Each structure stands twice: as C-alpha cells, then as structure tokens.
Amino acid sequence: MALQIYISGKFYDKADAKISVYDHGLLYGDGVFEGMRSYSGTIFRLKEHLERLYESARAICLTIPISIEVMEKAVYETLQKNSLIDAYIRLVITRGAGSLGLDPNKTSDPQVIIIADSISLYPEEFYDKGLKIITASTVRSHPAALSPRVKSLNYLNNIMAKIEGLQAGCVEALMLNHKGEVAECTGDNIFIVKRGVVMTPPKDAGILEGITRNAILDLCKEHGIVAFEQTMTRHDLYVADECFLTGSAAEVIPVVTIDSRPIGSGSVGPITKKLSDAFKKLVHSK
Ligand code: PMP
User: Fold this and answer.
1) What is the pTM of this model?
2) Cβ(157) to ligand 1 under 6 A?
3) Best mutation site among 51, 248, 276 for ligand 1 pocket (most ligand atoms within 8 Å of CB)
C-alpha cells in the first residue's frame, strides 16, 4: 500500500497528497513545521514538539485549526495507518490558500499535513568518525527580522548556509549570529566540551531551542556532567576538546573538524560518546 499522508483530517496516497498552489505556505513560506521521531512506536518528547509547534504558530499569528489533543491523536493515527514504529514524522501547518498578495487575512483554511516516513540523515560512518564542518558566511537571521526560535516554513536562511557547507564538501555548516557569536548549525544545535564541562549557546543566541538539545542538558544532569548555556565565539570551538551536534533527525553526531581545524584530538571524544550512548538508551526506553 502507498504511504498514507494526512492532510486536514483525511488520508491520501503519497502521489495524491496535494495542496493548492495558492497556499501561502508555498507562495511565501508562511507556515510552521515540526520534525520528530518515533522509536518503537513512541514519539520522543511529542508534547514538547507540539508545544513548540503551537508556540511557533502563535508567534506568526497563525491559528492551528485543531487542538493539541486532536493533533496528538492524528500523529499516532498516521503512524498506525502506515504500520510504522520507527519513523521520522514531519508536521506542517500552512497559512492556507489565499490571494496572490501577502495579506494573511485573505487566506482561509490553514492546512495540517502529517507525513510519517523513514529517514536517515547522515551515513553511519559520520556517527563513527565524526563530521567535518565549516563556518558559513551567511549569519542566522536577526531575531528582530524573523526569530530563529520560530520553526517557520521560511528556511532559506539555513538553506543558504547549507549550500555553503555543501560547496565546501561538508554536510553541515556552523552559523554565527549577527553579533558574530556561535548560534547553531543549519538544522542542528551545537555543543562543545571543554575540560569535562559541556556548553551550548543560550536560547537568545539566535537558535531554535532544540528538543534534542534539551534532552542532552537533562542527560548531563542525570550523569553528573556539568553543563550550561554559554555565549561563545569561534575561538571557543577551535580550542574545545570535543564538539557534537544534536537534532531530532541527526540525533547526536560528533564533529571532528571545524574550518579544517581538528577539534581536540580530531576524533570522537569520550563525553560525546557517553552522551550519544545515553541518548540512544533514553529514546529506546518507554
Ligand atoms: N536548529 C535548527 C535550525 C533546526 O532546524 C533543528 C531541527 N532540525 C534543530 C536546531 C534541532 O532541533 P530538535 O532537536 O528539536 O530537532
């Protein structure tokens, strides 16, 4: 059976899952989304993902037409319809079809799309050997322009940085904020380890507050590893002992070089390995 996609209350075969070309989600990137994972049939931190989705929608004055409770049921129904237990789930809310102008008041019917599919973001060797990344010259959007805390459908800022990474032969790229501080990567949050202490940029550094990021901070606490949010520059990354990235799709992935400079020993560090193992255990525990 073809993959079943949920669109606003109904299921469609993948080939027939379509929305209007007048939808402002397409015309202007006007909408919000979430990416999450199901492990053995349980969606990891679903409540946190839905909270972020509804907050992102509020931030752009978009009312999601169904309640969080109905959304939660629809997400699980999409998994069941596709007999999936280990999956990546993409939730997309568009502003809906409207006129050929920006005015969101001239749109109607925001669309709710749920796609459950398999995903493998990076080849397994990157998890064993670590990623090489570069710093993109594209800075993270200024929070007064479009807050990076909103997970909106307008991802061109990140895509521009991703292109820079790909052109340099890297699958991820580091983004700085408008002040030159470390923010995050194009689709992942960043952590460093220095003298046994774990650090990640603060929420106001121009980042999306990742659910995986927060899970790692919780795991540090549980394992007695000192961890805190810290404003940092590229200097801090260059002199770090270890570096790793986090995201729902990527999970925990080590970084071994930044801008061709080896981080620490230039191989996967022990705290990264410990946290990566702890994260695997956490997502597989009910
Ligand atoms: N930053 C950005 C820009 C992202 O798009 C994502 C999600 N792919 C993340 C960080 C990580 O967030 P999460 O752990 O909630 O997936």
Assistant:
1) 0.97
2) no
3) 248
CATH number of 124-285: 3.90.1030.10, 3.90.1150.10, 3.20.10.10, 3.30.450.20? 3.20.10.10
151 is catalytic: yes
Q: Ligand 1 mean position to 210 CA, how many Å?
A: 5
- Counting beta carbons within 10 angstroms of the beta carbon of residue 1, is it exposed (0 to 12), middle (13 to 18) or buried (19 or more)? exposed
How far, in whole angstroms, is CA 47 from its chain's centroid? 15
Instruction: State pLDDT tens for residues 30-66.
Output: 999 999 999 999 999 999 999 999 999 999 999 999 9
pLDDT digits (tens, 9 = 90+) for 104-156: 999 999 999 999 998 877 899 999 999 999 999 999 999 999 999 999 999 99
Give the pairing of strands 131-135 and 251-258: parallel
CB atoms under 10 Å from CB of 170, counted, come to 21
Taking residues 79-95, report their average pLDDT: 97
Rounded CA-CA distance 220/227 in Å is: 6
Let me know: does 65 contact 53? Beta carbons within 8 Å. Answer: no
In the prediction, which pLDDT does 238 show? 98
Q: Tokens 């049939």 — which residue?
A: 41
Residue count (the chain)? 286
* Alpha-carbon span 168 to 147, nearest angstrom: 27
Query: How do the domains of the chain map onto residue ranges?
Result: 4-117, 124-285
Of 10, 14, 106, 151, the catalytic one is: 151
3-state secondary structure of 26: helix
User: What does CATH list as the number for 4-117?
Assistant: 3.30.470.10
